[in-house]
Amino acid sequence: MMKLALISALAGSAAAFAPAQTGARSTSLNAFTAADLPGALAPMGFFDPLGFAKKADEATLKRYREAEVTHGRVAMLAVIGFLVGEAVEGSSFLFDASISGPAISHPGQVPGGWDALIIAGIGFAELQRAKTGWVDPADVKFDQAGALNSDYYPGDIGFDPLGLKPEDSEELDVMITKELQNGRLAMLAAAGFLAQEAVDGKGILEHFSS
């Protein structure tokens, strides 16, 4: 596993973690407003100190939420990758258990050739996400690059193998909020892990045990 646990996980990140917002496929673009967005909890409420949502039209707001939920999913996988990769170093069956040290150093220790497989996996996952949510570039004007399909709800890539998505819209909003909050926490955690290991060259688990 090693750091590869993180990178391999990222390959599926775009198509993973979906108690996704699938129940909202019928939600129209016109109904997508800041006032209706799940993810706001007391005491902060709808936290937008720089006014990005206020300045955004509905299409832009959808792209903001798509970016947030996707980065949150990647970050959750990254946090798991950090902890698992460092926990099994020296004992994994991969690469003769030769990968060790802080997680941020693991990619450089992966034998050549694996990088291409990892990049190909990430590219495939991103392609599937783009085909699900984005308007074909050939069908959009030059000043509307990155337009999402009108019937696409941010994060709803149709991946729910365990059937966790609630049928009730209120329960779905609760689940969406939980995913968003965990993703936000994971983004902060992953950034902290990266910074800490870059500063002192010690693994995260090593910090916990010292």
Give me the number of helical elements. 6
Fraction of residues in helices?
40-55%
Mean pLDDT: 81
**Low-confidence runs of at least 5 consecutive residues:** 1-30
Q: What is the helix/strand order? A: HHHHHH
Structural class comes to: mainly alpha
Please tell me how large the radius of gyration is. 19 Å
Strand content: under 5%
Largest sheet: none
Assembly context of the chains: single chain
Q: Could you give the count of β-strands?
A: 0
Bulk shape: globular
Distance between the termini: 23 Å
Written description of the protein model:
The chain has 210 residues and is mainly α. 48% of the residues lie in helices and 0% in strands. Residues 1-30 have low confidence and may be disordered.
Please render the helix and strand layout as text.
Layout (H helix, E strand, L loop, with lengths): L2 H9 L40 H4 L2 H30 L26 H20 L35 H32 L3 H6 L1
Helix pairs in contact: 1-3, 1-4, 3-5
Any key phrases for this structure?
6 helices, 210 residues, mainly alpha
Short description:
The chain is mainly α and 210 residues long.
